[in-house]
Every structure is written in C-alpha cells, then in structure tokens.
Design brief:
The protein is of the alpha+beta class. The protein contains 12 helices and 22 strands. The protein folds into 3 domains: about 240 residues, 3-Layer(bba) Sandwich (FAD/NAD(P)-binding domain); about 100 residues; about 45 residues. Helix 2 packs across helix 4 and helix 11 packs across helix 12. Bound molecules: flavin-adenine dinucleotide. The site of flavin-adenine dinucleotide has 38 residues, from helix 1, strand 3, strand 7, strand 11 and helix 11.
Length: about 475
C-alpha cells in the first residue's frame, strides 16, 4: 500500500442492508448534545434510538476526560439561565458526590464546576434508560440514504456488520456533523483562511505533592514547558490548564496537549493527532517530573481515550449565529437556550489564546506567553450584557428537511463557535433539538415548520427558564 492517498479506487458492490431499527427519532452521536437530544425526545413519548461509536455516552465529557462544566447563571450570578436535563444530571452526580466546585461547591459559587467523568458515564446511562431511549453502542454511523434533502435511513456499522436505521427525524450530534456531511448539507470550516481551533488531549496525572500547586501559581510549570519538545523540536504550543481531583489530593486532570494545524474531520489527521498528543503528554510529564518542584513522583494515571476536537464543520442553517449576536446579547423570538461562556479562540497554528468576555473585557495570551487586557466595546467601557441567546434556527441545516444538528456543529460563525462549543451550551442545543424532533413527529410536521412556541413551552417544562 502506497499511503492513504485517493489515487486508486475500488467499487463496492450493491447489497441489501437489513433495517435494524425503525423509530421516530434517531440521535447520531451521544456526546453532551446527543445525550440531551435523546433524553428530551424520549421523554416526550416518541420512540428514540441513540447511536454511539464508543461504549458509553458523554463524548469529550467522558472519553475526552474534560471535567469542567461552566456556570448555569447569568454574568451577575443572580439569575439561573441554563436548566433542564442538565439539572437532572447534576442532581444524580450530587447523589454520588461526583460534582464539586473548584473552590466552592457549584451551587454556592454559581461559577464553573468539576464533574467526575466516570460517574458521568453511569448517570448518562441511567437517565437515558429511564427515559426509554434505545442505546446502541460500539456502532459507527457510516453513510446516509436519501434524496432531495430528506434522509430515509442512516447506515451504521458494528460487530454485526452493516445495518440501516430508519427514522422520521434524524439529529446529528456527532460533533463533526458526519451525517449532515454525508447527506450533502452545506457547511463551513475554520476562520477566513480555513484554520480551525486545535484539538487537545487530556491526561490525569497522579503522585503530586502539595508544592506542585505552588509551582503552577508561581509560573514554574509554564516556564519549564516554555521550550522545544524533545520528540519533534517544536516549541510546546499549549495553553495548559488543570483541575484538581475531587477524590485524591495528589491528582489533577491537565488539558495539556494541543495539536496545532489539525483538521479532526480528516481521518489521517485525527489519527496523527492521537499519536502527537500522547508524545506531547509523555514529554510534559517527564519535563515536569525532572524540573519542577512537587512533580518528582508524578505519573500518568490515565490518558483520554480520545483526542477532543474543538472545531471542525459548522452546518449552514436557517440562521447563522455570530459573535456580535453573542457579545451584544441579541434577543431572538425563537430562543431555545442561553450562555455566558466567552468567545474563546485557541490559536490554530501555535501558542496563544484570546478570550472575549460578555462584560467587555478581552484577555489575550500571545505567542510569547505575554498576557494583555483590553476592551471589545466601542466606547471602551464595560458591558452589562448578562447572557446570550441561541435560536432554534441554528439547529436546522438550510438544505435538509428531516435532519437537525446539535452541539458544536450547529449554524454559527468560527468566532461564535468559540463560545457555543462548551458543554452546557451543547447540552441545551441537544435538548432543544430533541424537543423539536419529538414535536415534529407528534404533529407530523418537519422541524422547520413546528410551532417554536410549543418547543419553548416544552423546554420550560423541562426546567429551562426562557
Ligand atoms: C481539549 C478540550 C478541552 C475542552 N474544555 C472544555 C471545558 O473545560 N468545558 C467545556 O464545557 N467544554 C470544553 N471543551 C468543549 C466541549 O467539550 C466540546 O465542544 C463538547 O463536548 C461538544 O459536544 P458535542 O456533543 O457537540 O460533541 P462531542 O463531545 O464531540 O460528542 C460527539 C459524540 O459523537 C460520537 N460520534 C462521532 N462521530 C460518530 C459517528 N460517525 N458515529 C457514531 N458516533 C459518533 C463521539 O464518539 C461522541 O461521543 C473542550 C474541548 C476540548 C477538545
């Protein structure tokens, strides 16, 4: 074999594929968006199947080891703006003592909080089964059958071979929008040059002694990593952050590796990112162990099963959400969720990150590690926008009739994705898509034609304040 280039082709024979499920709603991908979509749809009494390539739900929130969920409250922390199924997840996690604050417990601080990614797998299963979702794990969605913007079936592949799943409504929650892509829906990728935020690989590290935390605070960790990596000679490209473990004082989860210039929707690049991510993690842990106080006995506990993609395809929908919509808190009559997470863009090609907060403040970490603060507001004053709004129309790919998208592939600009991509936002998008799909089945209308007021009313029933 001369490498994975598309110069040669073979022809697949036509064959009949067994229909292994025929349901009202098929949710493809079970990450934060997919889990919420499936539960929301099933709770409204429509038959729902959830197809997931891993053996558990959660996506980046479990397989990717990412444990920080962001605030459910407005910027002034006075109003709860995010709710619904996420509240049920948190209540179950609390019962297991598996959610905790970085400083204060999340209900007191109303800020970001940390979730035990293993307990999350159990809670996602529980809630989905209680809602009556049929779960099909270890199953990859590989193709779509349909015409003229209407999907008849998705083709899946697992240990049993190929199977077809028929549904009235399909919700693509694969992160990369694999289903919408195969259905031919229009999409964009990256910034004006096509560059995408880099993926990352997270790791749990144990064996730290308390002085390791002082080393983070004093900058000793960043200083030790501010150099060429020994495995490829490139300067370490990451913006490193960590969370403490709720169970073991000597353990942390580090979002440490960043694989620049990578498009995770390209098979070979996604594979290469896994290798590069592990090489980076190996170098990071060895460097910290050898050079930084507190890390002398550090060891890798667990490398995330999967590279986490921050950005790939964004499907053009009935509305394209922009950075301006978010930062100015634009109102939409078809609002289905809110958020406060800033526009957060990791440099696609090197070090550096920029945060544009709703309160007007911009924090820029440049390529050399310098941090500067400025304002994005025209008058340079603080903004009192309390939260942003996400409209139903971002879930509706404009050239499709019975396909919805939810999660980080909805209709928005590259900049808006910087904010919308976080888990509490993706969960709300999934929840709204699930409700929209269920109402679509119950009223025999396509999702675009359902009464948005009825979707909003069901979201309020689930616990979301609109
Ligand atoms: C390194 C990193 C750090 C981050 N840090 C934070 C953070 O601190 N807080 C935060 O809130 N967010 C964070 N994010 C962002 C957030 O985790 C993701 O944007 C979010 O998980 C996206 O949710 P999703 O459901 O759209 O997609 P995903 O979480 O990617 O889920 C997609 C699911 O679909 C499945 N799937 C994909 N393709 C197929 C297929 N063809 N067939 C079947 N199944 C398929 C996947 O296995 C997965 O389970 C981070 C992301 C990364 C990469």
């Amino acid at each position: 074999m001369s490498g994975l280039v598309n110069r040669e082709f073979v022809r697949e024979s036509a064959r009949d594929i067994p229909v292994i499920a025929n349901v009202d709603v098929a949710v493809l991908g079970g990450g934060p968006a997919g889990f919420n979509a499936a539960v929301a749809a099933a709770r409204l009494g429509v038959s729902t199947i959830m197809i997931e390539k891993n053996g558990y739900m959660g996506g980046v929130a479990t397989a990717g080891l990412v444990s920080i969920w962001h605030s459910l409250y407005s910027m002034d922390r006075k109003r709860k703006i995010i709710g619904g199924i996420v509240d049920d997840v948190l209540a179950r996690l609390e019962e297991r003592s598996a959610v905790y604050g970085q400083g204060d417990f999340y209900t007191e601080s109303k800020g970001s909080f940390v979730v035990d990614t293993e307990a999350a797998k159990l809670v996602f299963d529980q809630l989905a089964l209680e809602a009556g979702v049929k779960l099909l794990f270890h199953t990859y969605v590989v193709d779509v059958i349909g015409t003229m913007g209407e999907i008849q079936a998705v083709i899946v592949e697992n240990k049993s071979g190929r199977g077809a799943i028929k549904a009235k409504i399909f919700i693509d929650c694969t992160g990369d929008g694999d289903v919408a892509y195969r259905a031919g829906a229009s999409y964009e990728k990256g910034d004006l040059s096509g560059l995408m935020q880099p993926p990352g690989l997270c790791v749990r590290v144990g064996g730290l002694n308390p002085s390791a935390f002082k080393s983070f605070e004093s900058g000793a960790v960043s200083k030790a990593l501010d150099k060429e990596m020994d495995y490829n000679g490139q300067i370490y490209p990451s913006f490193l952050w960590y969370t403490k473990s709720g169970y073991r004082p000597d353990e942390i989860m580090m979002a440490a590796a960043r694989m620049t210039n990578t498009d995770c929707s390209v098979g070979e690049q996604f594979s290469q990112a896994s290798v590069d991510g592990r090489l980076q993690i190996d170098w990071i842990v060895r460097t910290l162990k050898n050079e930084v106080p507190g890390f002398e006995d550090a060891h890798i506990v667990d490398i995330a099963a999967e590279v986490g993609a921050r950005e790939t395809r964004r499907f053009l929908g009935d509305y394209v959400l922009t950075e301006e919509d978010l930062l100015t808190g634009r109102g939409f009559s078809d609002v289905i969720g809110h958020g406060t997470y800033p526009v957060d863009i990791h440099n696609p090609v090197g070090r550096g990150i920029i945060f544009k907060h709703l309160n007007g403040v911009v924090v820029t970490h440049d390529e050399t590690g310098n941090v500067t603060t400025s304002m994005w507001t025209a008058d340079g004053n603080k903004s009192d926008v309390q939260y942003y709004n996400m409209p139903y129309r971002v879930l509706l790919p404009r050239d499709m009739s019975n396909l919805m998208v939810a999660g980080r592939c909805v209709s928005m600009t590259h900049e808006a994705l910087g904010a919308i991509r976080v888990m509490v936002n993706c969960m709300q998008l999934g929840q709204a898509a699930g409700v929209g799909a269920a109402i679509s089945c119950l009223t025999q209308k396509i999702p675009r034609d359902v009464e948005v007021g009825s979707v909003q009313a069901e979201l309020v029933n689930l616990g979301l304040e609109l």
